[in-house]
């Protein structure tokens, strides 16, 4: 799967104002609403918080991957944000979060596309070079290319 199918530069915000987990998810959800991926923000937000209650989506190395499978999503999409402030989030390594990758998954994709996408992004995040670049890259297009380069390696 090509990350470009679910992520575009309009859904990457490298100077988020959020200071809390809730503000961060809200700020990224707004991008997905503007893009037309999320058509019922209230429903989508409920589904994201329901998922968060099942276990934190904090990853490691300052990354979090919140996600919601929701009827409020018209088509599966990602939004990526980087905060100006470290955000407290329950992560695997205890680090505060600076980069959030929000998954909005439509119900029709919940079993196939969602799993592939999650494993693809997780695979990218296993590469410390990719994480280091994600935390400093200023060009949204290069962030998409970073996540795509890992996929091409996996499918080769």
From TrEMBL:
Q: Which GO terms describe its biological process?
A: phosphoenolpyruvate-dependent sugar phosphotransferase system
Listed GO CC annotations: membrane
Q: Out of the domains of life, which is the source?
A: Bacteria
Coiled coil, from the record: none
Q: Which GO terms describe its molecular function?
A: protein-N(PI)-phosphohistidine-sugar phosphotransferase activity
Q: Which UniProt keywords apply?
A: Phosphoprotein, Phosphotransferase system, Sugar transport, Transferase, Transport
Q: Where is the PTS EIIA type-2 domain?
A: 5-150
In Swiss-Prot or TrEMBL terms, this protein is called: PTS system fructose-specific EIIABC component
Which organism is this protein's natural source? Phytobacter massiliensis
């Amino acid at each position: 799967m090509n990350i470009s199918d679910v992520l575009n530069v309009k859904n990457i915000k490298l100077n988020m104002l959020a200071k809390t987990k809730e503000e961060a998810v809200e700020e990224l959800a707004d991008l997905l609403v503007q893009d037309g991926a999320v058509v019922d923000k209230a429903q989508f937000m409920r589904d994201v918080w329901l998922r968060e209650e099942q276990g934190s989506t904090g990853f490691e190395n300052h990354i979090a991957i919140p996600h919601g499978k929701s009827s409020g999503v018209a088509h599966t999409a990602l939004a990526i944000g980087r905060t100006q402030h470290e955000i407290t989030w329950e992560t695997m390594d205890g680090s505060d979060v600076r980069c959030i990758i929000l998954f909005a998954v439509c119900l029709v994709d919940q079993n196939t596309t969602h799993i592939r996408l999650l494993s693809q992004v997780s695979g990218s995040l296993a590469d410390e070079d990719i994480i280091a670049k994600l935390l400093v890259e200023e060009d949204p297009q290069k962030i998409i290319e970073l996540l795509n380069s890992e996929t091409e390696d996996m499918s080769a």
